[in-house]
Write a structure and sequence with these properties.
heterodimer, A: alpha/beta, two-stranded parallel sheet, 14 helices, B: 178 residues, two-stranded antiparallel sheet, globular
Chain lengths: 449, 178
């Protein structure tokens, strides 16, 4: 029964790095499905892994894969028909309802069910080959004793050797940042203060990056953000900021926090003009824009660092950029950040892990390896509004980083999608049914286009 | 929802039987889980599609039921046409695909699409953009054209007749990439 044509397929398509289509379940991560998703892998692979692997290889050998002339934009598992609604339903002739109209919506719905482009971005990417971290192995099953031994050694190295070292280093880094910036903050404003503050920030940043075993490759350094500009980047984790400040000084923008973070914020703002907002001020968009505009206008101030997605995405795609950052004006310096998932998963799934367990996971990974591309500056063109500009910048970042682009809002992680999208689809369909005066016995001008 | 990566190279109902015998029969999903897919939530017929998964009065669907519904979208392969003439018709035959679409229209499951049902489905598809009178006349005309036995409702046979020239296979199939 098992070998009757059933294979559990794993396909990989090369992109910047390998991605594996593993076996995850359709159902919500909160339901028992997700936790039992492993069961699927186990059921099917217990005792059958060699068999299905053989079958799969045989199939691959017998039937050469058809050459795909165009690699699909997303590493999809189904063939997506991107024909727009108008073409598919309206065809050549008509402006009337047909029963077959339903097929379009039906198929789109099922395609969404089988492969949902959006919610997969809110969980960690799957790897082709295991990197000895159980957290990245969704379909765990026992393979061999040797591998288990290697894994155990890996665990010991990571937890008993690397973790304490990194933790000490991080503590040193944070303490020296607080102490250093407080000391520099006492100095009178001037070029000496700026210089020293830069030194302190850079040094402490570098210590912190070492604390995470970070290896960062910077590309196109000639495009580094200049003073008076705005630096925008895609957002994967809280350490994005540290990755960028490792190579230059930026003015951070963010909300005032309590606790250790608050202490750091208060200390650093004395030395360097970061822009910290109170919680109440954040709600007032005009106030925020005004303050940022003032900052940008002063050409002596450091470039602002903003993450327009608003939330952490899993580094396989770039989601909708919020237009607020692009209304400030000034020159935008886009930066693309791409982590190498082989050494450690940098994505912060804030619904699954809190910040402390996230930092613990980061510090017990092998390393954080990432590439940073500085891109040539962009300005808003004549007649382009903020949204179009934001999309233009987003495309550029996605292209550079090898990420896919999605027009969806990162806020869908927590919120439901707005009804206006559905209404737009309905409107488009209505246009096909009814045009001015084309509906036989209907009075003209009842429905406008 | 995470994408279903339980990708089979060959759809096969044997698959469902296999899963039935494993602990997967313990897994369930609910309507809210479907509604969390953004692309489905903005589909005008999203609710009807979700309904197709759940049987009468049921609030949850298990993996087997899920696969049965999804199996309707399997492409029709040529070598299967001659395979099993005596067995039950596969779920992805042209007739069953049409039946699936018919059920999307047939809200009360009485095997007839009445004018009211058609009106309701049309209303879902167009939202607020078309007036009641216009929609009513569209529905009337459609039924008039398709109705052959004069009962002002569309039966499955009449439905099939209307769609005889449509390439159902191409429109109602999902192909997996490999």
């Amino acid at each position: 029964m098992f070998s009757s044509g059933y294979t559990f397929s794993f396909s990989s398509e090369p992109r910047n790095h390998q991605r594996k289509m593993g076996t995850t379940t359709l159902f919500s991560r909160d339901s028992s499905f997700a936790s039992q998703g492993v069961v699927i892998g186990q059921c099917l692979s217990q005792g059958h892994s060699e068999e299905w692997a053989t079958i799969r290889i045989e199939k691959g050998v017998k039937k050469p894969q058809p050459q795909m002339l165009k690699i699909p934009a997303a590493n999809g598992i189904i063939e997506r028909d991107e024909t727009p609604m108008e073409k598919e339903i309206a065809g050549l002739h008509r402006m009337e309802f047909r029963f077959s109209d339903i097929f379009y919506f039906c198929r789109k719905g099922f395609e969404a069910i089988v492969e949902d482009e959006v919610t997969q971005r809110f969980s960690s990417e799957e790897l082709v080959s295991w990197n000895l971290l159980t957290r990245t192995n969704v379909n765990f099953h026992y393979v061999s004793l040797r591998l288990t031994v290697v894994w155990v050694i890996g665990v010991m190295v990571r937890y008993c050797f690397l973790l304490p070292l990194r933790f000490t280093l991080a503590a040193i880094g944070i303490t020296s940042m607080i102490v250093g910036t407080t000391v520099v903050g006492q100095l009178p404003n001037g070029s000496l203060k700026n210089y020293l503050s830069e030194v302190v920030h850079l040094t402490c940043s570098r210590i912190l990056v070492r604390a995470l075993s970070g290896t960062i490759h910077y590309h196109n350094k000639e495009n580094k953000p200049q003073k008076g500009g705005i630096c925008v980047a895609n957002h994967t984790s809280p350490i994005d900021a540290i990755i960028l400040t490792n190579d230059g000084c930026y003015a951070m923008v963010g909300q005032v926090h309590g606790g250790l973070m608050g202490v750091i914020q208060r200390a650093t703002v004395k030395a360097c003009p970061h822009v910290w907002f109170e919680r109440s001020e954040i709600k007032d968009r005009h106030l925020v824009t005004k303050r940022l505009r003032e900052h940008v206008a002063d050409k002596n101030k450091l470039p602002i660092l903003i993450f327009p997605e608003g939330t952490c995405i899993n580094n396989t795609s770039v989601m909708m950029f919020k237009k607020g950052s692009f209304e400030i004006g000034g020159t935008i310096y886009p930066v693309a950040i791409k982590y190498d998932p082989q050494f450690g998963d940098a994505f912060w799934n804030s619904s699954k892990y809190n910040i402390v367990s996230y930092l613990l996971r980061i510090m017990t990974s092998w390393a954080i390896v990432c590439h940073v591309w500085y891109m040539p500056p962009m300005v808003r063109k004549e007649g382009e509004d903020a949204v179009q500009f934001a999309n233009r910048v987003r495309s550029a970042i996605a292209r550079q980083g090898g990420l896919t682009e999605l027009p969806w809002d990162g806020g869908l992680k927590r919120a439901k999608v707005k009804d206006s999208f559905k209404e737009e689809q309905q409107k488009n369909y209505s246009k096909m049914l009814v045009r001015n005066g084309s509906q036989g016995n209907l009075p003209a001008g009842t429905e406008s286009d | 929802m995470m994408a279903s990566r339980t990708v089979q190279h060959n759809w096969n109902l044997d698959l469902c039987t296999y899963f039935l015998n494993s602990s997967l029969q313990l897994l369930w999903t609910h309507r809210e889980d479907f509604q969390r897919i953004p692309e489905l939530a903005i589909n005008p017929l999203g609710d009807r599609i979700i309904n197709a998964f759940f049987s009468e009065g049921e609030d949850q669907v298990n993996f087997r039921g899920f696969m049965r519904t999804l199996a309707h979208f399997r492409p029709i392969e040529d070598n299967e046409k001659s395979k099993d003439q005596n067995g039950p018709e596969p779920l992805n035959s042209r007739s069953n695909k049409l039946h699936f679409a018919f059920r999307l229209y047939d809200l009360d499951k009485d095997d007839k699409i009445s004018r009211d049902e058609l009106l309701q489905v049309l209303r879902m598809m167009v939202g607020v953009n078309i007036s009641d009178e216009q929609l009513g006349s569209i529905a009337d005309r459609t039924i008039q054209e398709a109705d052959q036995d004069g009962d002002c409702a569309i039966s499955f046979a009449e439905f099939v007749k209307v769609l005889e020239k449509v390439d159902v296979e191409q429109k109602m199939s999902i192909r997996f990439l490999h």
